[in-house]
User: Fold this.
Amino acid sequence: MAIYSIHESKIKKLEETANQIRQDIIKMLLVAGSGHSAGPLGMADVFTALYFHILNHNPKKPDWPDRDKLILSNGHICPVLYAVLARAGYFPIEELKTLRKFGSRLQGHPHRGSLPGIENSSGPVAYGAGLAVGMAIAAKMDEKKHQIYCIVGDGEQDEGMTWEAINMAGKWRLDNLTFIMDRNNIQIDGYTEDVMPKEPLRQKYEAFGWHVIDIDGNNIRQIVEACQQAEAIFEKPVMIIAHTIPGKGVDFMEGKFKWHGITPKPEEAREALHQLRTLGGKIKSEHE
Amino acid sequence: MNKYNQTLDKNFRDKEKLIQIPTRNGYGEGLVLAGKENPNVLVLCADLTESTRSIDFQKEFPKRFIECGIAEQNMMSMASGLALSGKIPFVSTYAVFSPGMNWGQIRVNVLQNNANVKIAGAHTGISVGPDGMSHQALEDIAILRCLPGIIILVPCDAIEARKAVLAAARCKGAVYLRFAREKTPVFTSEKTPFQIGKAEILKKGKDVTIIGCGPLLYEALLAAEKLEKKGIEAEVINNHTIKPLDEKTILASIKKTKVLVTIEEHQIMGGMGSAVVEMLAKKFPAPVEMIGVQDRFGESGEPEELMEKFKLTHPYIIKAVEKVLKRK
Assistant:
């Protein structure tokens, strides 16, 4: 992957943005009082890399036909999507605090049409995969050059429809399609391999005609380089298995499946924000 | 004679002289016409290309035909992605599979995305025949009618089926189209009007309203003709659009006749008749008899044997009319 380069200063900047996104997520969830914590925090680096470096998009023209499209298949991690969209300029940052509230454009699960930048309504997991495949086929038919990205969870690998979509993408050799899996090893009822075995994921996807890249999903350089590599792969769709730490950045949430579907209480949020602002004690002075 | 809709086939009274074509053939013809009219029209099919008549489109526009394999959930999800990219996909397979197996994808991916997807349910009703209960879709309207934003069309013959496909391709939004396997009389003509949301009066009458959809409407016409001889003037309405319901036309008829019989090749729960009586219960309560499948699954047999066993033919419509008239 050495042929792709991203300057160290840019990586630092993206890491700072990801940290800001994590703080946004904690603040949003605290005010919302319900929702999911672990997934959004774990995926903050992936979403930051996509919206601030990889995706060819324009917040001023959300309907621009040649934009890269990001489909969210696991809609429950939407706080991270909302936070990056707001920070990218799709809507006012102020609005983040309306998450899940009556009358808000930030619905509990994303609704296309409610908010600029949302490509698909989602919520029940695995619905986005086939939709993304349809978009990639449409782009091929129209000889468009944009990329389709689809974020999927590891839990939704249980769903039969996931494999229907994966099969179809392999049949069409959709090299304009990149999936990024949040491989965080947790789902609602426990650790993924206890609930229903997923592995061997790499071999499964390869058997369906996909190119697979395993990365540390909390490492911005690896995320960027994997996405750049994915764009360069011909004749195959690409699955980037992003091994993430659920709850990343907040020590008492990291790796705990109980944080999948709950939100922090005020004192927990205060502690979480403190950890994020000081980078877990690495920074002495705390800036608000 | 002028009680009858003047645009019906001139031989509509004589079944022997009418050509018999399955409504699914009208689907195939309509797809080709829609495809010629708009390059964005695509057809998706799940390993039933010939029997759904999607094959007509596949031959004409092979590059705009997508074989999805036996994977109806993914077919519907892909259709939503294609539609959000500006395409007009027609999703074709048996109704027992779509919407039978992909209701969730229709609900979230199609309707909650406001995606311009057309869903064609083939092989509906007990007239599917020998294949038996698993393949006879009798619940498709019920499970779709409750979904916000969908249009539901049930054409009565092959000509109307073709018109319905073209109308669906031209309108924006999700549409469900219902087709049948068996040959049935083509009793409308090219001139018969077809407009989404506008019920068509096939015969005028003042004593009772018979309201139906699909090929069974021909039985309603036969019943109405025999009722004339008994001195009963039945009004026959082709309610091809179940959603949005043409309340104006239906209400005007029931306010005149005061009683009605509903007919459909579908469970009586949640179907066309339910849509009509839900509306009437609020706006003009009237005695009703409902002809349809009475809360049971189908079975194997020749279509005509099953239509008789399930009491869907014109003698049973006449009995229902006589019964409801006693409650007037």
